[in-house]
Amino acid sequence: MPLSLQIIAGLLFLYLLAAAAVYVFQRRLMYNPYTHVNTPHRDKSPKMDKVSIETPDGLTLASYYAAPKTGKDGRLMPTILYLHGNTGEAGDAAHKLIPIVNAGYGALLLEYRGFGENAGKPTEKGLITDAAAALDFINRRQDGKARVIYYGMSMGTGVANGLAAIRPPAGLVLECGFTSMTDAAQYHYKIFPIKYLIKDTFDSKERIKSLTAPVLFLHGERDRTVPVEQGREMYETAPVADKTLKLYPDGGHINLYDFGASDDVVDWLNRHYS
Asked: 38-273 falls under which CATH superfamily?
């Protein structure tokens, strides 16, 4: 065999080997859970009770809950179901809930299976199951009177959209969201045919087409993890008239609260639900 063909064959072999590795180990690449517990009772976190959420497949999820106050209309104020991203664990995001809880809204900071102290292994189906179990928990705590707003961050937007497609929310907040995990992964692994390899697609663009509730999109224009174009595409795809897109020119993927996102979220909540 000519040397040039040997080189081509060798490169092809290495490419296929790399693609196989991406396929086999993709969930290790997609989910990066921390197994320490960063309790939200630390400084700069709202006071929340540690609760146990039972899933239909037999897991117990340690999570954190703050009950809502009664609003001016005599009803319980809405509760935010917070769904964090693919790295770390729930306590890392607790500081975001301070202004929300201080404004009287309830909050459930869900910890997924396989994250924090929780058993199990994360998958798309598993995380949406966890979110549905959290929603059931809120409804039981509030005697079926709950109004629940799903707040997803990064990968959590995929969970939020997955839940919204089967259990319509009172509202939806999507921070640094992707059109799909397929698209987000393709952005980073350009040389691989991700759509033929990926198991957990989190097809948010398709799922948001059934949305009927108000929705707030937040995205940093310097986001290098999920490009802002995907956030804009999600905004354009959302079929509701009541939709808001907030862009942060200097914002990246995890720092929007450094650029005023906290006020924007609370203002949006108050305009729609207080």
From this structure: Alpha/Beta hydrolase fold, catalytic domain (3.40.50.1820)
